[in-house]
């Protein structure tokens, strides 16, 4: 009887097996397969790995008894703005039948080595925008939370998402839009030709990756983004679905234009798009102003994510 387990770099042909593992393991994410696609596309070179199990006595499917029982994906954020190059552990999954045998630990350690080899000087388990699925580990994936702690990671600030029941939320904007029009403010769906100017405006006004995320939303058909404009100048934007179809955000209103209800209209327009697309519950990711979302569309605090970081000894 020959049984062995081996790690190797993943190839695109492995994707169906990875999607199947995600479908059975990511029980709190109904779009598990799309998450694999998203994190596969943004993974760093050499940071997609699979764990294969061979049982030579079990060749019923003609594969020599070899099948994928786990995988790990990682991405890299180059050094920027005085922040060090960061390796992100994006996703690790082990087949339920092969858990608690040390495979998760092995996959994590190998992924860390690869991320460090690719230049990372610190490691994080926290979304790596603009291509992120979560802002950390949903604490209901408790073994994963324990694994991070056991591997020497320290907790960063927790993050939350909020949930909106789209059938119950008041998403009407007509009256508010009328009022804004009278004040010379046009609210409209983004257009592909907005990309350059909107991205520059987001970079200037908010920094971070919102400009890139806005650009991603403008490239879908139709664009999943709405803007508020006065005299040709952007005052606010909100987008949805650029990482995952049921996700809302980011959104932002220029500081000087806040308090006029622009954000509420932009938010409702996006959620109405999602409702029209058949989504029942939208998830507002990585929430800052809980009061705004709660008051405007009855959002409730939803998932809790713990983010982690580990420094890499020089
Ligand atoms: C998290 C996961 C990858 C661990 O894989 P595994 O092969 O079972 O893990 P290992 O046997 O190597 O154990 C590594 C550590 O994980 C933790 N762990 C694993 N199973 C656990 C459990 N049932 N309860 C608590 N901690 C657990 C432990 O800390 C363990 O190390 P320790 O025993 O030295 O403390 C696996 O549970 C899994 O695929 N879960 C579903 C997918 C998931 O949650 N992925 C992360 C989403 S962001």
Summarize the structure.
Helices cover 31% and strands 29% of the residues. The chain is α+β, with helices and mostly antiparallel strands. It folds into two domains: 163 residues, Gcn5-related N-acetyltransferase (GNAT) (Aminopeptidase), CATH 3.40.630.30; 113 residues, Aminopeptidase (3-Layer(aba) Sandwich), CATH 3.40.630.
User: What level of helicity do the residues show?
Assistant: 25-40%
What is the β-strand count?
A: 15
What count of domains describes the coordinates?
Answer: 2
Could you give a short account of the major beta sheet?
Answer: 8 strands, mixed
Bound molecules: coenzyme A
Give structural notes:
With 314 residues, this protein is of the alpha+beta class. It folds into 2 domains: 3-159 and 306-311, Gcn5-related N-acetyltransferase (GNAT) (Aminopeptidase, 3-Layer(aba) Sandwich), CATH 3.40.630; 167-279, Gcn5-related N-acetyltransferase (GNAT) (Aminopeptidase, 3-Layer(aba) Sandwich), CATH 3.40.630.30. It has 9 helices and 15 strands. It has an 8-stranded mixed beta sheet, with helices on both faces. A 7-stranded mixed beta sheet has the order 1-2-3-4-5-15-7, sandwiched between helices. Helix 1 crosses helix 2 (32-41) and helix 6 runs antiparallel to helix 7. The chain is elongated. The relative contact order is 0.14. The model has no long low-confidence stretch (mean pLDDT 96). Coenzyme A is lined by residues 25, 91-94, 99-105, 137, 141-144, 146-147, 150.
């Amino acid at each position: 009887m020959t049984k062995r387990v081996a790690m190797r770099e993943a190839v695109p042909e492995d994707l169906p097996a990875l999607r199947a593992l995600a479908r059975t393991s990511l029980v709190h994410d109904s779009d598990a397969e799309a998450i694999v696609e998203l994190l596969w596309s943004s993974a760093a070179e050499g940071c997609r790995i699979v764990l294969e199990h061979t049982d030579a006595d079990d060749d019923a499917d003609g594969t020599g008894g070899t099948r994928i029982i786990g995988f790990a994906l990682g991405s890299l954020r180059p050094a920027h703005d005085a922040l060090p190059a960061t390796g992100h552990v994006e996703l690790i999954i082990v087949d339920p039948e092969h858990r608690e045998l040390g495979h998760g630990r092995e996959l994590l350690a190998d992924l860390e080595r690869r991320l460090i080899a690719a230049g990372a000087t610190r490691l994080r388990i926290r979304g790596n925008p603009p291509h992120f699925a979560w802002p950390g580990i949903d604490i209901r994936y408790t073994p994963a939370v324990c694994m991070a702690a056991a591997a020497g990671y320290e907790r960063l600030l927790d993050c939350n998402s909020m949930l909106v029941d789209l059938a119950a939320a008041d998403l009407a904007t007509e009256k508010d839009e009328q009022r804004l029009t009278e004040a010379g403010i046009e609210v409209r769906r983004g257009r592909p030709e907005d990309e350059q100017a909107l991205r520059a405006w987001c970079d200037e006004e908010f920094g971070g990756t919102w400009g890139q995320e806005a650009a991603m939303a403008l490239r879908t058909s139709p664009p999943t983004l709405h803007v508020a404009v006065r005299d040709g100048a952007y005052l606010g934007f909100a987008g949805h679905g650029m990482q995952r179809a049921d996700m809302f955000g980011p959104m932002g209103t220029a500081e000087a234009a806040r308090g006029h209800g622009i954000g509420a209209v932009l938010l409702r327009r996006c959620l109405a798009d999602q409702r029209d697309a058949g989504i029942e519950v939208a998830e507002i990711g990585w929430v800052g102003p809980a009061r705004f979302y709660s008051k405007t569309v009855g959002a409730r605090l939803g998932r809790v994510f713990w983010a982690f970081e580990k420094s890499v000894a020089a």
